[in-house]
Design a protein that fits this description.
The protein folds into 2 domains: 54 residues, no CATH class; 140 residues, Lysozyme. It has a two-stranded antiparallel sheet with strand order 1-2. The chain has 10 helices and 2 strands. With 210 residues, the chain is an all-alpha fold. A hairpin with a 4-residue loop joins strand 1 and strand 2. The chain starts with a helix and ends with a helix.
Length: 210
């Protein structure tokens, strides 16, 4: 009788201990279906939640031919991810705009400035799109330049996402980024389509960053 009672007590204690260990104190944590109970009970819920957060971190790739520090590259990857823009395409864009130099102080003969070569003529419009004060905008600050450029791309993706999909949409957006929306519409009206040499080269260079 005492032996049976002892067995029942042990079973109840083990059951309670296992349940408490598996679910811990995090209401958002639950073990994956099919995972052996003995393996789950070796880890606290906090450890598993931290592992999940680590898996969601943005992966930052560094390239020997890109002279940008890890902080700026991390900013580029993170902002691209937040806006839903392909980071490889954006790096391909910067690659083309700067002639592969990634020089944040670059000034072109056509009055384009910074790492994303934003034309001075459109500073006001692009800063407005990005929600940045024109008076404090510094085109040679790569973080500001990247944000303004990505904000413009994001606005174009949102504006034309119902007309095109996939690579066609990206091609259209890149063409608008380079020639302006009116310029691309005029191309289409002439029967020339929406692909430009600019969009084609950006997508070709993007392959280096995948």
């Amino acid at each position: 009788m005492s032996k049976i009672f002892y067995t029942v007590v042990v079973f109840v204690v083990v059951t309670i201990f296992s349940t408490t260990t598996v679910y811990g104190t995090k209401e958002t944590f639950a073990p994956m279906a099919g995972t052996p109970i003995e393996y789950i009970s070796l880890y606290s819920a906090d450890c598993l939640v931290n592992d999940r957060e680590d898996e969601e971190k943005t992966v930052v790739k560094m390239y020997e031919w890109v002279p940008l520090d890890e902080d700026l590259m991390s900013y580029i990857y993170t902002t691209c991810e937040e806006m839903g823009i392909d980071s490889a395409v954006f790096l391909g864009l910067i690659d083309l705009e700067t002639g592969g130099t990634f020089n944040p102080n670059l000034i072109s003969d056509t009055d384009d400035h910074g790492i994303c070569q934003i034309n001075r003529r459109y500073f006001t419009d692009h800063c407005s799109t990005a929600g940045i004060d024109l008076d404090t905008f510094d085109p040679y600050d790569p973080y500001q330049s990247v944000y303004v450029s990505l904000s413009l791309l994001d606005a174009l993706y949102n504006r034309y996402g119902n007309l095109y999909q996939g690579n066609d949409l990206t091609t259209y957006v890149l063409s608008c980024y380079n020639r302006g929306e009116t310029g691309v519409k005029n191309m289409i009206n002439r029967g020339d389509g929406h692909e430009t040499l600019y969009s084609r080269i950006v997508l070709e260079r993007a392959e280096k960053y995948r």
